[in-house]
Amino acid sequence: MKLFLISDNIDTLTGMRLAGIEGLVAHERDELEKALEQTFSNPEIGILLLTEKFGREFPDLINQVKLARKFPLIVEIPDRHGTGRKPDFITSYVNEAIGLKL
């Protein structure tokens, strides 16, 4: 099982390549769709890493792909600029999921 990255910038891709993770750079929606199709056609890819920017710019596409596919696992990661999430993201996510304040 391999990891694969689709990034919105070359710096994140370069850093991941240093860790042994291959990937592609996409900037526009059509580039992202082509990269996703290429990734889904490779059965060796088990985890797909996407930079968070795609989730912010194309939430409908990313959510559709996450709901429609069980494999590969899709994980959004911060890019070189850091995360766009608030500091207590995980706590608020758990609070919302279980309905209790931790």
Secondary-structure map:
Elements: E1 2-7, H1 10-18, E2 22-25, H2 29-40, E3 45-51, H3 52-57, H4 59-68, E4 73-77, H5 89-98
Parallel strand pairs: 1-2, 1-3, 3-4
Name the features.
single chain; 22% strand; 5 helices; alpha/beta; 4-stranded parallel beta sheet; 102 residues; 46% helix; globular
Number of helices: 5
Q: Regions with pLDDT < 50 over 5+ consecutive residues?
A: none
Summarize model confidence as the mean pLDDT: 87
Strand order of the largest sheet: 2-1-3-4
Mass-distribution shape: globular
- Rg, rounded, reads 15 Å
Query: For the report, how would you describe the main beta sheet?
Result: 4 strands, parallel
Secondary-structure element series: EHEHEHHEH
* Helix and strand composition category: alpha/beta
The tally of beta strands, per DSSP, is 4
Portion in strands? 15-25%
State the helical fraction.
Answer: 40-55%
What distance lies between the first and last C-alpha atoms, to the nearest angstrom? 36 Å
